Amino acid sequence: MQLTKITFILTFLTIFICTTYGQGYKNPVIPGFHPDPSICKVGDDFYLVNSSFEFFPGVPIFHSKDLVNWEQIGHCLTRPSQVNLEKIGASGGIYAPTIRYNNGIFYMITTNVSDKGNFIVHTKNPAGEWSEPVWLEQKGIDPSLYFEGDTCYLTSNPDNCIYLSEINPITGEQLSPSKAIWTGTGGRYPEGPHIYKKDGLYYLLISEGGTEYGHKVTIARSKNIDGPYESNPANPILTHIGKEAQMNPIQGTGHADLTQANDGSWWMVCLAFRPQSGLHHVLGRETFLAPVNWEKNAWPIVNGNGIISLNMEVPTLPLQPIKKSLSTNFEEDELGFEWNYLRNPNLNNYELNSKKGSLRLKATPILLDDVDSPTFLGRRQEHIQFTATTKMELFNAKNGDEAGLTVFRNNTAHYKILLKQDDTGKRILALSYRLGELSHTISEIKIPRGSVYLQVKGENDYYSFAFSTNGTDYKFIDKLDVRYLSSETNGGFTGAYIGLFATSKNKTTNAYADFDLFNYLPK
Fold first, then answer.
1. What is residue 54's three-state secondary structure?
2. Tens digits of per-residue pLDDT, 448-490?
3. pTM of the shown model
4. CA atoms of 433 and 413, how far apart (whole Å)
5. Span 68-101, pLDDT tens digits
6. Element (H, E) at 457
7. What residues are annotated to the active site?
8. How far apart are the C-alpha atoms of 280 and 285, rounded to whole Å?
9. Among candidates 170, 164, 150, which has minimal Cα distance to 193?
10. CA 420, CA 401: separation in Å to the nearest integer?
């Protein structure tokens, strides 16, 4: 009888805990090229933003109830008047944003490194339109805001040091001189500063070491917001640079932000990357989540030992899964938020026909190789193993016109499978690449006119390309090495996109391509 009572009590406690709190989650919580996460909480809602660089719209914004399941609700920068990306180089444009909330207003502060520097936009509805930018005097990248009552403080990192000033967040006016407050612990590139107040002390969280394998998060605190700041003796509080994490499938942990849930628990979002095919990472820097133990008057401790994993077996907030569609038949009135253009697009070259279920891309004499805005729509590669398929047809083409599917890193690193037409009017399916100064067509196959299915499969070491004329029987063409699209090969701060495009080598063209579906399926 006693054993039965104990069993009943244990069962009841297990059910209570599992229904009150979630148990475990998988990292990354926002996969693919979603770097430099910043987070804020309003009520029981969490909002998160990421860097976007040369892609438009700028600064994707996500919403969550549980910190694990995130849904993109829009972008902060949706108009050319907010973000000038005209002919900027790869990995230029919009760097690390910060999102904060105060007195009914959301603020997003970021840097356009290819324009006038740091600026702020604001809104009362984060899923709606944001204001025009106000530009700031204080320089440096990775700007952040801290509100205390009606006072707003700005931090950023000019001169490899964290600086602080008081500003008006609506007008951008600087109200006090910029003051240097901390240089970090000696690591390269002290950046990504965020200020929090807890137990009467100001905590300054930053990243050091560069956004590479030596990345780390450090923290300091002070009785006064402008310092002096005392470094945590246990710094860094998050890093995978040590031998304990040298075989961890997550590397480059850093650039973090903290938030506290309504149950009192503390959490950290950070960026990191997942190497594949040796020490190469292709997907870009992604958004990861870690629990934080932050006792009164103590320093925060991230996941017990400053190391995170893909499978986080820790208690969570009550989980609220979100159904996500990774594919489209173009029957919606608007494209999903996951789709991006390159730089500021000419929207006249894109036509979504929801009644016919097709997306029309008009070819222009701007190539994927150009530092410009070709007719291109892409979505981030979010999984190492995946299959992407599109059905398309090319119209009014002459020699020099082409359209198809691309695995795109930047203008000097991309693979593409495409339709084109030769001088004799024959329809050609081709597989080609651009890698640095090297451009080459691997295969050309004559195919009949009509719709064709183009497909790319991603694996750990290779992208495999195939096509079909009936959507069922696919013919393998060739495979290409993923390492040539990696950050280690190309540098920069972005990740791989799977894109649709239509381009021309002719000064004028009437060619266009209709895409009837796009399926993206993780393995």
1. coil
2. 999 999 999 999 999 999 999 999 999 999 999 999 999 999 9
3. 0.95
4. 8
5. 999 999 999 999 999 999 999 999 999 999 999 9
6. strand 452-458
7. 36, 191
8. 12
9. 164
10. 6
